[in-house]
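Write out the bound-state structure for guanosine-5'-monophosphate.
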Amino acid sequence: MNRKGILVVVSGFSGSGKGTLMKALMEKYQQYALSISATTRQPRAGEVDGREYFFVSREAFQKMIEENALIEYAQYVENYYGTPREYVEKQLAAGRDVILEIEIQGALRIREQYPDALLLFVTPPSAEELKRRLIGRGTESEEVIEARLRRAVEEAEGVEAYDYIVVNDQLEACTERLHQLIEAQHSRIGLQKDFLDQIRQELKQFS
Ligand code: 5GP
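---
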C-alpha cells in the first residue's frame, strides 16, 4: 500500500492533557514527526526554546507571516501561534506523518489546504476535570485560566469540524487510540488511489 506522510491535527481544550499525550505518543511511536510551533507567548517554567515552541517577538512573528513561512497561524488568548512551513513540508516529502498540536482556527486552515489531513479532538472526561487540570497545572494566573475556560466554550461549538473525538481519561489507552486512528487514516480508499490503480492494472491479466 502507499505510505505517503499525512498531517495529523490534534486539538483539545487547554488542560485536556494533550501535551502529555503527544509526549507519550512520540515516545512510543518514533515514526511520527511533531511540528514545533512559533509563538509570541512567554515560555512557562521548564519550557525550552526550540523544544516546546520557538518563542519569538511579535515583530519576528509578523515577518514569518509576510514571508509565507507559516502554513497557518491564529491568535489565542492574546498571543499568536503558527506552524512553520519548512519542517512540515520536508517531513511529509520524506513520507513521515506530521503531528500538529494546534487550536481550532488553525485546524480549519489545515483542512482547507490539506484535505487528506486527519483532525482529532482530545477532551477530558468532563468540564469539571478540565478546570481541575488547568488549576492543578499551576502555570497560569486566575485571569488566564478564566480566559482559557471561556475559549473552551467557543471551541466546544466547533468540534464537529473534526474527524474523531478522543476522551483522554487514561494516558496509555488514549495514546494507543490516537495511533490506531492515524493507522486507519492511511487505509482510507481516498489515500490509496495509486495502490488501487496498480491492483486494477494487475487484475486485468485475468479478464
Ligand atoms: P499553550 O499556550 O497552552 O501552549 O497553547 C495554547 C493553544 O495554542 C493550544 O490550544 C495549542 O494547541 C495552540 N497552538 C499551539 N501551537 C499552535 C500553532 O502553531 N497554530 C495554532 N493555530 N495553534 C497552536
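---
The beta strands are 7-12, 32-34, 37-39, 53-55, 70-76, 79-84, 97-101, 118-123, 164-167.
Helices lie at 18-28, 58-66, 85-93, 104-113, 127-137, 142-157, 171-186, 193-203.
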